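Look over this record as teaching material.
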Amino acid sequence: MIYLDYQATTPLAPEAREEMLRWLDGPDGPGFANPHSSHRPGRAAAAAVEVAREQVASLLPPGGRVIFTGSATEAINLAIIGSGAKRLAVSAVEHAAVLDTARQVQRGPWVLPVGSDGVVDPAEPIPPATQLVAVMQVNNEIGTIQPVEALASAARSVGALFLCDAVQGAGKLEAPAGADMIALSAHKLYGPKGIGALWVRDGIALAPLIHGGGQEQGLRSGTLSPALCAGFGKAAEIAASRMEADAVHVETLWQAARARLARWTLNGSERQRWHGNLNLRLNGLDVARLMSDLRDIAFSAGSACASGSGRPSHVLTALGLGSDQAKSSVRLGFGRYTRQKDIEGACARIDAAAAAQGV
């Protein structure tokens, strides 16, 4: 199997797995202890959590705190609902975690459009009464990088908080500058599934979503998993140390893939983009048939979170693509553990299978 779906999830880094195993010991080791207990094994587990918190914080700006959550989706819910904001502005290409949560808070939040390149113009007006603006750093479907620093400044100019979904950018790009809250997910940066984080700028108060014992700074009741925290922390540490090397490797893979699929049309900006995301279309392509013909290559027909709905991608339609164009698109995602020979071979086979359809 050739895995080309890094936007859906990344492979677990071996270093993160090893770190997790230390905190999954049986009764002869300290790893099983509750990190909220005051005895010695509990304190050891709590110390592991705090080390992980510092490691995750190394990917983020100074002057804030890291709150561990069960996922980036939970982190986004905590940011939006916990902020108490009632008037929201969100980009048209946000993940469902942002869009659906915003709609729960406000019927018809203000939508910031994108151009045909998938980028929000920082000059796009924001209603003066807006209390929170949410724009992602890197789009999960098309990989476009948003001008978050300028957008955060625009949000501040109307007195609004700025939330950035950095799930796809964390560990790959520098932290989004100017944000008040940043959401992350461990399994998108070679960490384990089941844990995310919300970075909150100092001075911003949030109300908890989950009530109970008051764990995790009073904002997320429930017992933390030292193993998940440790895996997340180690993955963040490795990502920080390998950021430049990973980017060079991804650029090599991007160039190889683009050369093999030169006749395909790129969706979204080529310049303002993370090059580990390749979203392409061939008009008339039957993507379901393509995926069936290539079952030993894992790639996506669009966002993994929306696949199977039968609806065209809201991200691709926001670019101005018609339904048929959106449905004739595929997404290839690659990264640290992708080999060049695998992506070249996979792209050659994808193009040949599309040609066999007569497109």
